[in-house]
Specification:
Largest sheet: 7 strands, mixed
Number of helices: 6
Distance between the termini: 16 Å
Helix content: 40-55%
CATH topology: Rossmann fold
Oligomer: single chain
Radius of gyration: 17 Å
Structural class: alpha/beta
Number of domains: 1
CATH architecture: 3-Layer(aba) Sandwich
Shape: globular
Strand content: 15-25%
CATH superfamily: Formyl transferase, N-terminal domain
CATH class: Alpha Beta
Strand order of the largest sheet: 3-2-1-4-5-6-7
Length: 200
């Protein structure tokens, strides 16, 4: 499994997955990372890790279709087979989604379908959980489709919402589950692809 990442900030999922590949916990090879943020710590990490890297954003490529094409070209040049969104704060275009259909994964900080959809990301999600009075929250890894947060669910981790929880405390507890949950989902994806590969 050749893995590429799209990240907007720190790229914590990308780092966790890369470490798991290096230690043998996941049969995969990180090959590339692109960011829409030129100052993203994830870009610096990718350079230091020896990955193919690029800053690809609407600031550099204003036309949405051209940006979509540039991202796809970057991923194809890197030999990517599976795409992981690691805190990527932009929607994917139809070219990338079409080519990597069924092979784009994202982690969302709630138990989808609760608290998902347009505008629901990061701290907004945890705040919505608290305002709703939910008794539990968690994280969901799902396949990415054109509908935001609507793709098939690969794995979920549940955490209790405790009395006195703040946004920060709930966020910390949810984030602690996300790395291993992503590894679980990637293994599931890998296993589901193996029988198809064997038939070719």
């Amino acid at each position: 499994m050749k893995l590429a990442f799209l990240a907007s900030h720190g790229g914590s999922a990308a780092r966790h997955i890369a470490a798991a590949c290096e230690s043998g916990q996941l049969a995969g090879t990180p090959v590339a990372l692109a960011s829409n943020n030129s100052r993203s710590p994830a870009l610096l990490w990718a350079q230091e890790a020896g990955l193919k890297w690029a800053h690809l954003s609407s600031a550099r490529i204003p036309d949405a279709d051209a940006l979509d094409a540039a991202i796809l070209e970057f991923l194809l040049d890197a030999g990517a087979e599976t795409l992981v969104l690691s805190g990527y704060m932009r929607e994917l275009g139809p070219r990338v989604l079409g080519h990597f259909a069924g092979r784009v994964v994202n982690v969302h900080p709630s138990l989808l379908p609760r608290h998902g959809g347009r505008g629901m990301y990061g701290d907004r999600v945890h705040q919505a959980v608290l305002v709703a009075g939910d008794k539990e929250s968690g994280a969901t890894v799902h396949l990415v489709t054109q509908g935001i947060d609507e793709g098939p669910i690969l794995a979920q981790a549940r955490v209790p919402v405790l009395p006195g929880d703040t946004l920060a405390s709930l966020k910390t507890r949810v984030q602690a589950t996300e790395g291993n949950l992503m590894l679980e989902a990637l293994r599931t994806l890998q296993e589901s692809a193996t029988p198809q590969a064997a038939q070719l």
